[in-house]
Design brief:
Number of strands: 9
Distance between the termini: 43 Å
Structural class: alpha+beta
Oligomer: single chain
Strand content: 15-25%
Radius of gyration: 38 Å
Helix content: 40-55%
Strand order of the largest sheet: 5-6-8-9
Largest sheet: 4 strands, antiparallel
Order of helices and strands: EEHEEHHEEHHEHHEEHH
Length: 521
């Protein structure tokens, strides 16, 4: 038999996205709401609800990245169109656009809920699970008999040889009845087929759960990236204000003859650079907005108000070791469970291939009425009409003794598929272990970098304040002041990147582990 680890299989485990359907009760799948289960919360949601447990600050509008930009557009683009040409009809909005609430301030759990309701991938995975459930029920129908109603009529003329010559009959007849066919015993063919369908249903349910986790992970990373870009805009605005103040200070000293013209030009150059960086940061907002709305399954034209996460406390440490996370992931990772269910389905294919070498026992029967109307017989010359109840009952044994080695080759094919599925399971197990270790190391590094980024920002702020004051008293050069200003700008960006990287690394670790209760504390 197989040698894969059986400890992975826990059929009664509850996963994010709801309980996996029991093989004996496929109707459980139909009790979920139409392709959306509002109670589903993917692992990323649980992590972010912990990260987002704070008071609600003011919201940021996702469609206004150019609040300080000029009112008129810099570039105009118009397409050529004939006067008589009718304008093309507008495309219908995506289905998820109707679910957007423009007045609601969305936090990350609310964004994930919106994505689960609006993203097409959710409907695709739901329909795949529905298909697997219907296929299982179709396989179970093999246990029941087949009952067929039949009827036919004919006008006939035939002859029968008798001692005196040929007896001619002509007239019409009809037959109607019910045919029954029932396979009584087939050496496990039906059991193997049903087991295969049940395992495929289990795999579809795990894939359905994993798809929800994937959507939540994409939303989380897009949300973090968007918030980071907004923070970079704020930092760039602060840098520009500092550059303007510095240039004004140099201008004042230049007016008093205490600064040279090259120093003034350097300050103005730094001010222009800060303005350029601000516009560049604002341009990145549009790209981050497009990525976020794509992960939500809605149009980028929607005005979403998003919760500002700048004051949310970040994880301070990792609650578990990498080994513990790996052990738990190998027990209940949706991808691993889906691949294990596929392996079980391949084993059922091998069982069915073996069963094809044995006979089948079936019962067949027919019950009906046969009617003969106005039948003329010559000789003797006479007519008759009759109606009779007819029935047949039989047991049939069907056993294929030789088929040109088709069954042998089918068995070899099923065995090869099973071995391939087992190898894929082992490969996936190694991939999961690798991804968890990488995400764990990345999160641990991000935690350490976060501490240094905060220390760097504090030191840069103090250095800039001291250098600016020293320059105003004539104790420092403009080069020193501009250098401190650049260092402060880099420190601000470093702090923003460290925050975004920590949130993204924590979400990646949760997604790689595939479990709902995995989080950093």
């Amino acid at each position: 038999m197989s040698n894969y680890p059986t400890l992975y299989w826990r059929s009664n485990k509850v996963f994010p996205g709801g309980r996996v359907l029991q093989r004996s009760k496929p109707a459980n799948l139909r009790r979920l709401p139409p392709y959306l289960y509002r109670g589903i919360r993917c692992p990323v949601v649980f992590v972010i609800m912990t990260l987002a447990a704070c008071t609600q600050p003011g919201g940021e509008r996702i469609d206004e990245p150019y609040a300080a930009a000029p009112a008129g557009p810099a570039v105009y683009w118009s397409a050529r169109q004939n006067k008589d040409e009718q304008q093309a009809p507008k495309a219908e909005p995506p289905p998820g656009d109707s679910l957007v609430d423009g007045k609601l301030v969305y936090d990350l759990p609310a964004l994930v809920d919106l994505a689960l309701h609006s993203h097409p991938d959710t409907r695709v995975s739901w329909q795949e699970a529905q298909t697997a459930a219907a296929r299982l029920e179709r396989n179970r129908s093999a246990w029941y008999p087949t009952l067929t109603a039949m009827a036919f009529g004919q006008n006939f003329k035939d002859s029968l040889m008798i001692t005196s010559g040929a007896m001619i009959r002509n007239g019409y007849s009809s037959t109607s009845g019910l045919n029954l066919a029932w396979t009584l015993f087939d050496f496990g063919r039906r059991e193997a087929t049903i087991e295969q369908g049940a395992q495929r249903l289990t795999a579809a349910n795990f894939s359905f759960n994993r798809k929800h986790q994937e959507i939540a992970y994409r939303v989380a990373t897009g949300f973090f990236a968007y918030q980071a870009v907004l923070s970079r805009v704020t930092a760039a605005q602060q840098t520009l204000e500092a550059a303007v103040a510095g240039a004004a200070s140099v201008q004042a000293r230049f007016g008093k003859g205490l600064a040279t013209r090259p120093e003034l030009l350097l300050a103005l150059q730094e001010q222009a650079r800060a303005g350029y960086d601000l516009q560049d940061a604002r341009g990145s907002v549009v790209q981050a907005q497009a990525d976020l709305t794509a992960s939500l399954g809605i149009s980028p034209s929607h005005a979403l108000q998003l919760l500002d996460l700048s004051k949310v406390p970040l994880p301070s440490r990792l609650a578990q070791s990498a080994e513990e996370i790996v052990d738990q992931a190998l027990e209940q990772h949706p991808d691993l469970m889906a691949r294990l269910a596929e392996l079980r389905a391949r084993e059922a294919e091998v069982k069915r291939a073996w069963a094809e070498f044995w006979p089948k026992l079936s019962m067949n029967g027919m019950l009906g009425n046969q009617y003969w109307g106005n039948v003329h017989v010559t000789p003797p010359s006479q007519n008759y009409t009759s109606s009779n109840l007819v029935y047949t009952a039989m047991l049939t044994v069907e056993w294929t003794l030789f088929d040109g080695f088709e069954r042998s080759n089918a068995l070899n094919e099923a065995k090869s598929r099973k071995e391939a599925a087992q190898a894929q399971l082992e490969s996936l197990r190694l991939d999961i272990i690798r991804d968890i270790w990488k995400a764990y190391a990345e999160t641990k590094t991000a935690l350490q970098k976060r501490d240094f980024a905060l220390a760097l920002l504090k030191a840069a702020e103090e250095s800039y304040a001291a250098t600016s004051e020293s320059y105003n008293h004539g104790l420092s050069t403009v080069i020193e002041m501009l250098t401190a200003q650049k260092d402060l700008a880099r420190a601000r960006y470093t702090e923003i990147d460290s925050r975004a990287n920590l949130l993204r690394a924590a979400a990646t670790l949760v997604y790689a582990s595939g479990e709902q209760n995995r989080r950093a504390e």
